[in-house]
Write a structure and sequence with these properties.
Strand 5, helix 10 and strand 6 form a beta-alpha-beta unit. With 249 residues, the chain is an alpha/beta fold. The longest helix is centred in the first third of the chain and has 23 residues. The chain contains 10 helices and 6 strands, in the order αααβαααβααβαββαβ. Helix 5 runs parallel beside helix 8. It has a 4-stranded parallel sheet. Strands 3-4 form a two-stranded antiparallel ribbon.
């Protein structure tokens, strides 16, 4: 590893610990706008809640993406099959793309915590309907975690498992480093790029699994992980993400 890469990795680690300290010192903030939350507010402030960014209606009954009124399924779910049973997302990606960027690349861990708390509150009854037995998350390779400093889906899953009192399969799924970044690829290229990326550490003693990720775009990642989970003992896989959409065909 050259000196520049070592310096970059050290910088990411330092920023990680700074943000961890900030999370401990400062009170709860809205996961979207950053305003301080009132005692009765969960995850986001009342203003953002009423702002219409949450996907509460007009969503695909399969993947949860925002769709046109009076439709039941998005184009992809109408024309293609998936490995998962069903999923939901809090927001449309286009509405909060700056927030997602901050979470992925600026170590905005406080936003992850806030939105995980919102997810925990909003989908508590859904989890009961799905009869979820355990929670896991889309993994990142060691190289990716080293570059970014942390894995947002892992933190979300940890909070959900704690709040819902469900087992967390922390090390069930593992990932090798992707050859190319998913966001630069079309649908078919995304699926090929994920081939043999994910694998499971042994069999799964649960049949109904919740899979957590930060963004759902084409479903390629969720499908790839769902397939691995099903090949190793799970029968039904559901998912939750912070946002969905953003993929241009």
């Amino acid at each position: 590893m050259d000196d520049r890469k070592k310096a970059d990795r050290l910088s990411h680690r330092l920023w990680y610990w700074i943000t961890e300290l900030v999370d401990l010192i400062y009170p709860d903030k809205c996961g979207l706008c950053g305003r301080l939350l009132a005692e009765e507010e969960i995850g986001i402030c009342q203003s953002c809640y009423e702002g219409g960014t949450l996907i509460l209606s007009d969503y695909c009954r399969k993947c949860g993406q925002s769709i046109e009124e009076n439709q039941r399924y998005c184009y992809d779910c109408h024309h293609f099959s998936h490995e998962f049973e069903q999923g939901y997302s809090l927001f449309d990606y286009a509405e909060i793309k700056e927030v997602i960027w901050a979470i992925k690349y600026r170590h905005a861990r406080w936003r992850v915590v806030a939105l995980a708390e919102l997810m925990s509150w909003l989908y508590a009854e859904v989890i009961k309907e799905w009869k979820i037995e355990a929670i896991t998350f889309v993994p990142q390779s060691r190289l990716d975690i080293g570059e970014k400093g942390y894995n947002p889906p892992a933190r979300i899953a940890e909070i959900l498992a704690n709040n819902w009192q469900l087992p967390l399969l922390k090390n069930q799924l593992r990932a090798r480093h992707k050859k190319k970044m998913q966001k630069t690829l079309n649908l078919e290229e995304r699926r090929k790029n994920l081939k043999n990326i994910y694998y499971s550490r042994g069999k799964i003693p649960f049949q109904r699994i919740l899979l957590v990720d930060d963004v759902y775009t084409t479903g390629a990642t969720i499908d790839a992980c769902s397939l691995i989970l099903k090949e190793n003992g799970a029968e039904h896989v559901y998912f939750l993400t912070i946002a969905s959409g953003g993929f241009k065909k």
